[in-house]
Amino acid sequence: MIRAWFSTFIYSEPLMGSGLGRFNADLAVECLALRDYDREGRAWSRRNYPGGYTSYASMNELHRFSSTFSGLERRITRHVRAFARALDMDLRGREIRMTDCWVNIMPPSAAHSLHLHPLSFVSGTYYVKTPRGCPGLKFEDPRLDRFMAAPPRLPGARRANQPHATYPARAGNLILFESWLRHEVAQNRVEAERISISFNYNWT
User: Fold this and answer.
1) What is the pLDDT of residues 66-84, one digit of tens each?
2) pTM of the model as a whole
3) CA-based nearest residue to 128, from 51, 59, 37, 31
4) In a domain, 4, yes or no
């Protein structure tokens, strides 16, 4: 008998049932205004995020200062609780909270290299603007560095046996994952900006 153990779960759902167009339009305006205002973030991005802009190192608690982003936080928190239940996490009597929230803007040629999110338990991305053909979010099998002498997978290998999984970027969609799961975004090869909002959650 063969059974699957130690599964890796990724959550992907629309943020809400209706009103996404107007909500994303307001978010996009605020994200672009933030880039114009955030001189420190633009300088950090030139050094660490070539071609793109992120408020990660300058303004990364946007949910505490903006009513638009605090509204996003309330909606995301419901999804994080649902994801935690699916993972059988024991949060009885415990609180969860968004600790960080930042903007990512990827013009043509920008990319985000492989990384993870330490000091949190759930992380995620919400897509605000996703021009057709822009890159998705690519996840790496967390066991990849332990495969050692394993042969390559067959071209038609089942999804569960593939070393990488890519979720397409779709405006209005929310993706959640456990923070230890490494991920990346390939180079944006379309002539339009991709806008997303990333965040982390912790528990007490």
Assistant:
1) 999 999 999 999 999 999 9
2) 0.95
3) 31
4) no
